[in-house]
Amino acid sequence: MNNNVVITDCGDSALVAKAVGLDTEAAWRLVHALADALDAVRLPGVHDMVPTYDALLVEFDCAGTDHDTVRRVLAHEAARLGPHPARTTPPRRFVVPVVYGGEYGPDLPEVAARLGLAENEVVAIHSGTDLTVRCLGAPAGAPMMDGPPFPVPVPRLASPRTRVDPGSVAVAGRQAVICPMPSPGGWPLLGRTPVRVLDPHRDPITAYQPGDTFRFLPISPEQWDEYADMPLADCHG
Question: What is the pTM of this model?
């Protein structure tokens, strides 16, 4: 039994395993280790798992399994892992070139004003720290990262955009993200990377996984073509 994991039903074909009684980092590590453990079991009927910051959503086919079976396996794996499982794979580090400001990052001036910083100071903070990927979000496995150490959280836009270009580098609250494909979005845009974030010919289509880190590298607009359409997988640091 693992008292740090609470398992509850979520509709007629899913369960949620939530980490409790742990600090933020430990909770995140536990739910991602639990996702890896359940994936290794290959439980028939389970077709998707979504680990986030402190909870794991497990979706299954009712024709192939049921709540009790999945709950029993989850509880067994949680007990086996304990509250502080060790990471089994080393993180990868990606160095991602970004053109900041201008047409590439139209919200940089407003973000700088809200933070009481010069634009170059915002860029220096955003690109000055390795940021850990915590989970894969929308759309299409966007890397949801820890935010840079800005003095205060960055609010979302009052009016979201109907289209955000792929490669757009954005922040909101205490989080950072790269938009991997065209989509609507309400996060302030600081810049854009010329590299190709998704690769539809890969399995999985993302080169990164939760626990990997990103470091942003400021480049000039004139350097855009040097990196244009480079696969993110080639941006190891």
Answer: 0.87
